[in-house]
Write a structure and sequence with these properties.
The complex is a heterodimer of chains A (113) and B (115). Chain A contains no helices and 12 strands. Chain A is mostly beta strands. In chain A, strands 2, 5, 6, 10, 11 and 12 form a 6-stranded mixed β-sheet that branches. Chain A is globular. The N and C termini of chain A lie far apart (41 Å). In chain B, strands 2, 4, 5, 6, 9, 10 and 11 form a 7-stranded mixed β-sheet that branches. In chain B, strand 5 and strand 6 form a beta hairpin. Classes of the chains: A mainly beta (113), B mainly beta (115).
Chain lengths: 113, 115
């Protein structure tokens, strides 16, 4: 069964600094997708970044990058130049070929001014 | 382009009642999945529908059911509500069901409180 582990329940970062949110996963599938979503206090889940299991290069989307280490089964999210609006809960997720997505427990990020 | 629309946004029910939640996906999205989010259990997968067929199901009791209509709109139903069913129910749609690459677009959620 697929499993996503986020070991950091809460993280703090100073405004304008970079932060890494950890994510490890477990799957027996060869083809899968890894995602990060942001959930502000309003509750809506917002897609941030995607990495395919066969992608050799790390994905980047603006200030977000995904540090993908397939052999270690890790997919860490790096946020550069943190902003106050980045304060939210962040979820790592894996989507298998058949369509089911599994989410981690989330990391609450607080950006300090 | 309209996003994923969930109704109602908030509702309060009492134990033993039943509830129906609705989800209208983004136009063109044929896959709809449902998730339950609670502080204690995190985000739990309920089920996924693609072209009116349930393709995946999570580990929830039979009181939780769903369906998808020909226009891809989906409903989920919870019967005989329990206090533990109080949660934020999130619906997400995606373009094509069978692929690991499809991004989920979420609705704002339906917050259910069971008294």
């Amino acid at each position: 069964a697929q499993k996503i582990t986020q070991t950091q329940p809460g993280m703090f970062v100073q405004e304008k600094e970079a932060v890494t949110l950890d994510c490890t996963y477990d799957t027996s599938d060869q083809s899968y997708g890894l995602f990060w979503y942001k959930q502000p206090s309003s509750g809506e889940m917002i897609f941030l970044i995607y990495q395919g299991s066969y992608d050799e290069q790390n994905a980047t989307e603006g200030r977000y990058s995904l540090n993908f280490q397939k052999a270690r089964k890790s997919a860490n999210l790096v946020i550069s130049a943190s902003q106050l609006g980045d304060s939210a809960m962040y979820f790592c997720a894996m989507r298998e070929l058949a369509g089911k997505s599994t989410f981690g427990d989330g990391t609450t990020l607080t950006v300090k001014p | 382009k309209a996003g994923v629309t969930q109704t109602p946004r908030y509702l309060i029910k009492t134990r033993g009642q039943q509830v129906t939640l609705s989800c209208s996906p983004i136009s063109g999205h044929r896959s709809v999945s449902w998730y339950q989010q609670t502080p204690g259990q995190g985000l739990q997968f309920l089920f996924e529908y693609f072209s009116e067929t349930q393709r995946n199901k999570g580990n929830f009791p039979g009181r939780f059911s769903g369906r998808q209509f020909s226009n891809s709109r989906s409903e989920m139903n919870v019967s005989t509500l329990e206090l533990g069913d109080s949660a934020l129910y999130l619906c997400a749609s995606s373009l094509v069901g069978v692929s690991g690459a499809n991004v989920l677009t979420f609705g704002a959620g339906s917050r259910l409180t069971v008294l």
